[in-house]
């Protein structure tokens, strides 16, 4: 049961059924004023959503935690298929430096004759590429604080 | 005392090398000697020693104190910290998607009728 394999890549996968048509879910991911309504864990308020939604376009998002501190994450869209697929890189910024970069994949499909949407979210790899190694720093600490504040 | 951020960086640095990952995979089957460990690899004994030193400093393995036969043993605690990283992200997105779901419910609800006292449905469920 040890998490050691030939390539120590790990991936996060979350599936959800969302109570809205695909078009609306897509807009919630791609229109800043909508993204600001939900991005971030409980107790956080989204403060920034700059979304240049096209392959090669950059995005940047921010949220303020219960401790009053703002966290910034950013990345670049790799694939954009309207109302179906978003693939983008994701990294937390700490003191202007980006931490370990992962790739996020948001897949949307119809459920219940289009009244609901199946969301499949994937993120990874959480491994150990040389890129990850170059970024020492406090991002992990920031995230731990974030998680503990939310849990309390 | 190392902060957890530093510890995680050290762990990932140690795991970044395929030879070191192979060594850990071998050690997950049980402790063994340096000689045994170096057999599958086409590299020198000093090179293996260097890898073991990195793994030891990252706290991924421990080595016996016997000068003759210093068996290497896997130590799983730092690896669990790496797994926690994924759990942190799972929590982050799960809660974000909870909020997304609440938001979408509000968006798809018909607007309140005029002249009627509307029960506030804007409160979050959680």
Notes on the structure:
The complex is a heterodimer of chains A (152) and B (126). Chain A has 152 residues and is of the alpha+beta class. Chain A has one domain: Alpha-D-Glucose-1,6-Bisphosphate, Chain A, domain 4, CATH 3.30.530.20. Chain A is 20% helix and 42% strand. Chain A has helices spanning 22-30, 32-35, 130-133, 139-151; strands at residues 12-18, 45-51, 58-64, 70-81, 85-94, 97-98, 102-111, 116-124. In chain A, strands 1, 2, 3, 4, 5, 6, 7 and 8 form an eight-stranded antiparallel beta sheet that branches. Mean pLDDT of chain A is 80; it is low at 1-8 and 128-152. Chain B has a domain at 4-77: Arc Repressor Mutant, subunit A, CATH 1.10.10.10. With 126 residues, chain B is mainly α. In chain B, β1 and β2 (72-74) form a beta hairpin. Chain B has a two-stranded antiparallel ribbon with strand order 1-2. Chain B has helices at 4-15, 18-27, 34-38, 45-57, 77-108; strands at residues 61-63, 72-74. Chains A and B meet through β1, α1, β8, α3 and α4 of A and α1, α2 and α5 of B.
Descriptive tags:
heterodimer; A: 152 residues; alpha+beta; Alpha-D-Glucose-1,6-Bisphosphate, Chain A, domain 4; eight-stranded antiparallel beta sheet; 4 helices; 20% helix; globular; disordered C terminus; B: 126 residues; mainly alpha; Arc Repressor Mutant, subunit A; two-stranded antiparallel ribbon; 2 strands; 57% helix; 5% strand
């Amino acid at each position: 049961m040890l998490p050691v394999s030939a390539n120590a890549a790990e991936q996060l996968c979350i599936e959800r059924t969302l109570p809205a048509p695909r078009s609306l879910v897509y807009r919630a991911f791609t229109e800043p004023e909508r993204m600001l309504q939900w991005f971030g864990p409980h107790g956080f308020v989204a403060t920034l959503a700059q979304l240049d939604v096209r392959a090669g376009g950059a995005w940047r998002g921010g949220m303020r935690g219960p401790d009053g501190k703002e966290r910034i994450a950013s990345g670049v869209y790799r694939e954009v298929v309207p109302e179906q697929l978003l693939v983008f890189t994701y990294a937390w910024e700490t003191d202007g430096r980006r931490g370990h970069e992962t790739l996020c994949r948001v897949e949307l499909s119809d459920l219940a004759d289009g009244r609901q949407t199946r969301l499949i979210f994937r993120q990874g790899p959480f491994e150990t590429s040389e890129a990850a190694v170059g970024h020492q720093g406090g991002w992990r600490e920031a995230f731990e604080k974030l998680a503990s504040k939310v849990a309390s | 005392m190392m902060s957890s951020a530093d510890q995680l960086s050290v762990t990932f640095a140690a795991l970044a090398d395929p030879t070191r990952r192979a060594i850990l995979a071998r050690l997950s089957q049980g402790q063994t000697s340096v000689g045994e460990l170096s057999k599958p690899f086409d590299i020198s004994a000093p090179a293996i020693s260097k890898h073991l030193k990195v793994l030891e400093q990252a706290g991924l393995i421990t080595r016996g104190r016997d000068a003759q036969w210093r068996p290497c043993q896997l130590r799983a605690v730092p690896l669990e910290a790496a797994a926690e990283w994924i759990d942190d992200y799972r929590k982050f997105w799960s809660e974000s998607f909870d909020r997304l779901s609440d938001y979408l419910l509000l968006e798809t609800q018909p607007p309140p009728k005029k002249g009627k006292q509307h029960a506030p449905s804007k409160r979050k469920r959680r």
